[in-house]
Specification:
- It is a single chain.
- This protein is an alpha/beta fold and about 425 residues long.
- It is built from 15 helices and 15 strands.
- A seven-stranded mixed beta sheet has the order 9-15-14-10-13-11-12, with helices on both faces. A five-stranded parallel beta sheet has the order 2-6-1-7-8, sandwiched between helices.
- It binds 2'-deoxycytidine-5'-monophosphate.
- 2'-deoxycytidine-5'-monophosphate (DC) binds near residues 94, 128, 130, 178 and 182.
- 2'-deoxycytidine-5'-monophosphate binds near residues 11, 37, 98, 127 and 129.
Length: about 425
């Protein structure tokens, strides 16, 4: 079961804009349930049915299949296989949606679909009855309001920008009418759940609302992590050279790609941490190294050290050789030594790059280093779509640290190692969703 956040409120309060941004920030799926009622309103209108008449609308339900799909985080609404994401956004369909949403059979028709999505994902779901009916046990409930005039003004500007021919008064009338319909219908009327937090956004900017809601969600859902003890590394002349070389090496990477960093609050602020990431490109260590600022150390395959010049460069960059596929523990002990000395050890536990972004076969080296050194682990996810091209977007997502207490082992055994390994891989996997 994922984390469920219910965001309810009247039409035009800006729920969808805010929910989309919050979902993006927290890596949640955004579910716009209004789109489901709109799809049914659209179907009924296309069939020439009177959308306020249950007698005309209910028989149509057996011909309707509504599905939600996601493409790079954007919700796509399929009505009997047809992508109607745009068609449902016109003004007439808003009223048709409000009308059909008052019909109890329509509401029960859409109930399971909404609950199914919520059961399988971390979601922020916006609607009217999410906190009261659809997800009464949601982890977080927010009821977002704004005055009718403020909402009409926002909606008017949005529609004019889209080139639709509307007047402010029409929109205000519509909003008042929909408010009345939505809060006076007999089934699942729009109302604040008793345990919802009410947020009046009339005088708030979108960014302020996004921040407020993200903070509410974080406060309610993030499990407190035991404070992690980190070490300080002593800056020597060699390390200053390291910092300069790291910066120079990173310049072309940061020019060639559009690198976006998420979860900045989780970036190790001191040393002595194991940073475990999935592996996509040869320059992953460079990207991560630049985010961390504090000195990092890296494992690199031993073949790379055969080239003299590259070997020197790698040594300056605090990389040390490891032979792949060997059972030799020496490089792992060297890794533990680096962590003990206060370096942030950057590891790619899969050992090899993944072409499609999925996590490779789990290996236990990372578990060995983390449990022997007793260091906290910072999971990292590196994500991009398709093939890398000039200025492709690459996201580096830092996850909440795993405290040493969580991955402490009682005795050195394969079973204990696998538990630690799976915890770390699980945390990286979560960042790739
Ligand atoms: O959020 P929206 O404007 O896209 O929603 C369209 C209509 O659907 C709205 O007038 C009320 C209805 N609706 C509902 O009754 N319950 C929901 N969970 C979502 C929307």
């Amino acid at each position: 079961m994922g984390i469920n956040c219910a965001l309810d409120g009247p039409s035009g309060a800006g729920k969808s804009t805010v929910a989309k941004a919050v979902a993006k920030e927290l890596g949640f799926v955004y579910v716009d349930t209004g789109a489901l009622y709109r799809a049914i309103g659209l179907y009924a209108a296309r069939q020439g049915a009177c959308t306020t008449s249950a007698q005309e609308v209910v028989p149509l339900l057996s011909d309707i299949n509504v599905e939600l799909k996601y493409n790079e985080g954007t919700q796509i609404v399929l009505l009997n296989g047809e992508d109607v994401s745009k068609a449902i956004r016109v003004n007439e369909i808003s009223m048709a949606a409000s009308n059909v949403s008052a019909i109890p059979e329509v509401r029960s028709f859409l109930l399971d679909l909404q609950r199914d999505i919520a059961a399988k994902n971390d979601i922020i779901m916006d609607g009217r009855d999410i906190g009261t009916v659809i997800l009464p046990n949601a982890d977080v409930k927010v009821f977002m309001t704004a005055s009718a005039e403020e909402r009409a003004d926002r909606r008017y500007k949005e529609l004019i920008e889209k080139g639709q021919d509307v007047t402010y008064d029409e929109i205000l009338n519509d909003i008042n009418q929909r408010d009345y319909n939505d809060s006076h219908r007999a089934t699942a009327p729009l109302k604040k759940a008793d345990d919802a937090i009410e947020l009046d956004t009339s005088n708030m900017s979108i960014d302020e609302v996004v921040e407020a809601i993200s903070n509410i969600i974080k406060e309610k859902t993030v499990k407190p992590v035991a404070p992690v003890e980190m070490k300080k590394v002593k800056w020597t002349l060699g390390l200053v050279l390291y910092a300069i070389v790291r910066f120079i090496v990173a310049i072309p990477v940061y020019i060639c790609f559009n690198i976006k960093i998420e979860g900045k609050e989780n970036i190790p602020h001191a040393g002595g941490m194991v940073v475990a990431s999935n592996h996509r490109t040869w320059f992953d260590p460079i990207m991560i190294g630049m985010c961390i600022i504090k000195p990092g150390a890296y494992m690199a395959k031993e073949e790379l050290f055969k080239n003299k010049l590259l070997g020197v460069l790698l040594k300056i960059l605090q990389a040390f050789p490891v032979s792949r596929g060997s059972a030799d523990r020496a490089p792992l002990d060297k890794a533990v030594d680096y962590v003990d000395r206060g370096f942030n050890l950057v590891l790619f536990p899969e050992g090899t790059r993944s072409k499609d972004g999925s996590l490779g076969k789990p290996k236990s080296g990372v578990a060995y280093v983390a449990s022997i050194s007793g260091a906290p682990v910072c999971p990292v996810g590196i994500l991009f779509e398709g093939k890398l091209r000039f200025r492709s977007k690459i996201t580096i997502r830092f996850g909440a640290p795993i405290s040493p207490d969580e991955i402490k082992i009682e005795k050195m055994s394969a079973r204990e190692m696998h538990k630690v390994r799976d915890r770390i891989y699980g945390a990286i996997g979560d960042l790739l969703k």
